[in-house]
Amino acid sequence: MHTTGKTEDLDNGSRTDAPAGARPLWRELLGLLLPTACAGCDRPGAPLCRDCAAALTARTPRPVRPTPAPRGLPPVHAAVPYADEPRRLLLAHKERGARSLAAPLGAALARVVRAGLEVPQDTPAPPQPPCVLLIPVPSSASSRAARGHDPTLRLAEGAAAVLRRAGLPARVLPALRHARPVADQAALRAAERHANLSGALALSPAAHHLLTAPSPRSPSTDPRSHLRLVLIDDLMTTGATLTEAARSLRRATCLPLAAAVVAAPRVAFEEEWELTGNLRFRW
Fold it and tell me: What family does this belong to (predicted)?
């Protein structure tokens, strides 16, 4: 979507310019030479300590909303505020290639999806659960090459695996692609970011066929009637990326649409408290 990485990544000004393939190799070498420490608190030992792992699931996932909320932003849920240990874990996974964090972050994301579906945590799936399609916000080709992986896709895959183990049909659908490059978001205000991203995403040909193919005469026989689309990202700040992704999907389908992220600014949670829970996923 831009020349340095995924749009929402640049809301916090992060970027990387390492050549493709070099960063993963150096990470492996450093892992052999240096002692392991927790990515969240630097405590020696495992890459993720027990306390930092607990911080990802300490709160009940809640609806979040940026201020101002852009028109067209779907209902969004988040697991934790973007601060302290969760912030460091997300950055370690995304920018430093700490791939072992994909599983715990994906598990936190799965809790967010369940909250939006109004399926209680740590309980069996309902008798006839919907089929959930997790649609990751895409990273640009240059970002994937520089980082050596696609962090949002990995999080979506981790969340889908957790949901399936709990009996909820879930799969990852990489439905979105970049239609044009955009400017670096880091120095832009919220309104400028939305203008910068307008028209930047489009459906992939395969997803377009899946979502727009002619329906059977009877809606009850259309398998898509049981689908729920959930946009996936690691972080929501201004909501610009999720709004643009939702626009692309809504041009092709009227299926219910929502979004799930691991983290959002603390103020986005505070706004939700005042809205008295009216931002539930509208299935």
Answer: Belongs to the ComF/GntX family.
Q: How far apart are CA 244 and CA 250, in angstroms?
A: 10
Q: What separation in angstroms does the CA of 109 have from each of 45, 214, 261?
A: 25, 33, 6
Q: What values do phi and psi take at 28, rounded to 5?
A: -65, -45
Q: 10 Å Cβ neighbour count for 231?
A: 28
Give the predicted TM-score (pTM) of the model.
0.80
Is residue 185 scored above 70 in pLDDT? no
> Kindly report the CA angle at 99 between 97 and 102, in degrees rounded to 5?
125
| Structural domain boundaries in the chain | 7-213+224-274
From CA 76, how far away is CA 73, in angstroms rounded? 8
Q: What is the pLDDT of residues 136-175, one digit of tens each?
A: 998 877 777 777 789 999 999 999 999 999 999 999 999 9
Which residues, listed in sequence order, are joined to residue 230 by a DSSP beta bridge? Answer: 134, 258
Residue 242's Cα: distance from chain center in Å?
9
The residue behind tokens 């930047």 is 200
Which residue is associated with the tokens 């398998």?
223
Tokens of 118: 């109004």
* Closest alpha carbon to 94 in 10, 200, 36: 10
Gyration radius of the chain's alpha carbons? 18
Cβ-contact 238, 229 below 8 angstroms: no
Angle at the Cα of 79 (from 175 to 59), degrees rounded to 5?
160
For 60-105, write each residue's pLDDT tens digit: 999 999 999 999 999 999 999 999 999 999 999 998 889 899 999 9
Residue 206 in tokens: 């395969």
CATH of 7-213+224-274, one of 1.10.260, 1.10.1740, 3.30.300, 3.40.50: 3.40.50
